[in-house]
Structure formats: structure tokens, C-alpha cells
Design a protein that fits this description.
The strands form two sheets. A seven-stranded mixed beta sheet has the order 1-7-6-5-4-2-3, with helices on both faces. It is of the alpha/beta class. It is built from 15 helices and ten strands. The longest helix is centred in the last third of the chain and has 18 residues. The radius of gyration is 21 Å and the shape is globular.
Length: 403
């Protein structure tokens, strides 16, 4: 039976492939550690009450989303970016941030239009290709801490460029873009009349006193920014599949039309829970950032620069992006070896770097210490200089196990 070529040629979504691989490994008896990219917390009592109420009402949500959720999103984001937002015109509730990304690209791209994506990156390319566009990946340098090279990004702009993706904190590297960097991106977008697609799914996971800055808060940028966020990470609601777009009314209108042809409307039940969660979060204030910073500080010594498998310390987000090139020939080989040791990782080629794997560190400190010990064992077992590496790994385990 015929399958559309552009679908057949696409890779799977990296994180969903990993989920299937983990399931298969556990069937084989592998003790796979529960490393997640989000916190596992029950929803707030207010969210549960709201869900029960909406279940009993059994009504459809408007296409743009429940008015109460759009209102609280408009209030929260408007206060953050320093300008009032109209919940009727500026906000669209989506089925998670992945749908939000797909809707934005379908709304603005014609066949052959280009989207600039600095790398390493999340799986944005597939969303662009599904919309008929062409992703233009622009690599950033690990040696420079993955700092965004604005001149390199600017050089990638062509007459076919329509949008640039901004993701902060960056998935998978954990880079938190500075206000100066965002200002430079905003000026570039203004100069070339580009839409800024700003994925801010990890806005509450920023560490060491840093501050998340939305591109929409940069002077003059809000009118050309589609801001995308999710309740999955920021509100510990991964199963609820609720996200949103805040942007110019023309973009929001086009995204709404695309969504209506896709699913008519979202779930009023999940959206009611999200509205209550935004007003009564299970992680008040900066408590999520504090918790995940502590978890980062547990795992990072095991993969700090100088180790065979090493990563830069993430400034935000729930991942370490581990350089495996000293030990393995490819990210697929590394990810497979790590999984056999019970460490789930996404092969870095999905993130546009075959020298790395992405590992989540949402887990208990005890689980993270065990992950670190296993990483050292994998490095020693696969090194070309095994006796020396094995001795070094044993020494590291002895030291780090006392942390």
C-alpha cells in the first residue's frame, strides 16, 4: 500500500523511539533506570477539582481553548513580557507544545520556505518538513559553550527564509540565552521580516541565579514572536497534553484555522485542570528550578569535562548532552551501549550531533548516583585503553559514591 514519500522518509521522533527502546530493554530483563525530563508530582487539589467539574459538564471547549485558561495565560505572559494581551486574539490553547510547533509552521510556511534552526536542537526539523518547509540547521560550537554565533546565523538567511527558531533553555544543551543574544536575534528578525518561533518549554528550569527571558519581552519583538510553552514540564503535567501559543493575532488566527481542520478543538477537561494548575501550581515560585538544579549537581560530576563521557554543565533544562566521541563511533552506538547498562538516552543525531547523547536527569539523587556509576562502567568497558580506563573508572566511582 502506498505511503506518502515525505512521511516514509521521515525518522521517528527521537524521544518516542527511546520510549519504545526502553520498553523492549525491560522485556529483556535490563534494569533501566527511571530518568525523566520532568518532575513526577500529583496535580494540585485545585486542578483535580476543576477536572471533576468539567467532566460532569461534558461540554466542548471553544476552538481557541477554554476562556478561563486563555485568560490566565494572557495575564501571566502579559505580565512577564510587559504588555497587555487579549485572551481572545493573542492566545491559542493546543494539545501540547509539539502541536503548537506544527500549527505555527503550517500557518506560515509555503512549500520550499526556509526556517533557521541553531543546533544542537530539539526535533524541530520534522515539524518544518511536515509543513512543506526546509529546515536550515546552523551548528553552534561546543568549545564555545554552544553560545549562539549571531554572524553565523545571519549568514544562513536567504530570500526564502521565513522564520527562525529560538529555544531557551536550549534542548538538549541546557544553554540559557542571554537578553543580549535575544536582542540580536530580534534585530535580525526585524531586518529580514522573519517570524521568531520561541519554544520556551523549560522556562521554569533555569539555574544558578539566572533568569529566563522570553524573546517576546524584547522591545519590538512581540509583534513578530510566536511564543510556545507547555504544561508538561513547568507544571509537572506530562500526561495532560496542554500547551499554548501566544502571538500576533494574524498568526494565532491562522493556527486556529489549521487546528480546527486537524482536531476541531482540544479537551475542555485537561484545559480546566491546566487553568487551575497555573493559578495553583504544585511548584510555587522557583521551587522547580531549585529541585532540578540540585539534581543537576548530583549527576554532573559523573560527566564533567575530563571524563571520557563528558558534558558541559547545563544552565537550564532537564538534560545533560554527553559527548561520547572519545569512546564511541556514533551516537547510535553509544545510546545502545548505555541502554544495555540501564541508562536511557536519546541518540544525538536526532538533535543534529552524532557526537553526543541526550540524558534526562529527572530522578532521585540515589538513582542519579547509580546512573553516574554505570556511565563510568560503560566508558571503561568500551574504551580502547580498557585497563587504564577501568582503573580510572573505579577511582571515580569510589570518590563520587561518597558525594
Amino acid at each position: 500500500m502506498k505511503i506518502a514519500h515525505h512521511i516514509g522518509a521521515m525518522p521517528p521522533v527521537g524521544s518516542r523511539l527511546l520510549a519504545a527502546q526502553v520498553k523492549a530493554a525491560r522485556r529483556r530483563g535490563v534494569d533501566v533506570l527511571p530518568l525523566m525530563p520532568y518532575a513526577e508530582r500529583p496535580p494540585s487539589p485545585e486542578a483535580v477539582e476543576a477536572v471533576v467539574r468539567e467532566m460532569r459538564l461534558n461540554q466542548e471547549a471553544p476552538s481557541r481553548g477554554l476562556p478561563e485558561l486563555r485568560q490566565v495565560v494572557a495575564e501571566r505572559i502579559g505580565a512577564e513580557i510587559g504588555q497587555p494581551l487579549d485572551p481572545e486574539a493573542d492566545v491559542l490553547i493546543t494539545n501540547g507544545s509539539m502541536q503548537a510547533l506544527n500549527l505555527v509552521f503550517r500557518a506560515v510556511l509555503d512549500p520550499g520556505d526556509e526556517v533557521i534552526i541553531p543546533t544542537p536542537c530539539y526535533f524541530f526539523g520534522g515539524c518544518v518538513e511536515l509543513a512543506g518547509g526546509r529546515p536550515v540547521h546552523v551548528p553552534m560550537d561546543e568549545a564555545a559553550g554552544y553560545a549562539w554565533d549571531i554572524d553565523r546565523i545571519a549568514a544562513a538567511v536567504t530570500p526564502r527564509t521565513v522564520a527562525i527558531v529560538v529555544n531557551t533553555p536550549v534542548n538538549p544543551t541546557g544553554v540559557v540565552l542571554s537578553e543580549d543574544t535575544l536582542r540580536a536575534i530580534a534585530h535580525l528578525a526585524e531586518r529580514h521580516d522573519l517570524l521568531i518561533v520561541s519554544d520556551e518549554s523549560y522556562d521554569t528550569m533555569v539555574y544558578d541565579g539566572r533568569r529566563h527571558v522570553s524573546c517576546a519581552s524584547i522591545a519590538g519583538a512581540a509583534s513578530r514572536t510566536a511564543l510556545i510553552r507547555s504544561f508538561t514540564k513547568s507544571y509537572a503535567m506530562p500526561a495532560w497534553r496542554v500547551g499554548y501559543i501566544v502571538g500576533p493575532p494574524s498568526v494565532v488566527d491562522a493556527c486556529t484555522k489549521a487546528m480546527e481542520w486537524e482536531q476541531l478543538h482540544g479537551s475542555h477537561v485537561a484545559q480546566a485542570g491546566a487553568a487551575a494548575a497555573m493559578r495553583h501550581p504544585v511548584y510555587p515560585g522557583d521551587s522547580m528550578a531549585e529541585e532540578f538544579q540540585q539534581l543537576r549537581d548530583v549527576i554532573h560530576p559523573f560527566v564533567a569535562p575530563g571524563h571520557p563521557l563528558h558534558a558541559l554543565e547545563p544552565a537550564g533544562g532537564p538534560f545533560v548532552f554527553i559527548n561520547v566521541s572519545q569512546v564511541f563511533d556514533s551516537s547510535t552506538q553509544a545510546s545502545a551501549a548505555l541502554l544495555e547498562a540501564g541508562i536511557p538516552t536519546t541518540a544525538g543525531h536526532f538533535c543534529r550531533s552524532d557526537r553526543h547523547v541526550r540524558m534526562a536527569f529527572g530522578a532521585s539523587p540515589e538513582v542519579l548516583r547509580e546512573a553516574g556509576r554505570r556511565i563510568a562502567d560503560v566508558a571503561a568497558a568500551n574504551s580502547s585503553d580498557q585497563p587504564i580506563q577501568a582503573e580510572q573508572a573505579a577511582n571515580r566511582r569510589a570518590v563520587l559514591s561518597r558525594m
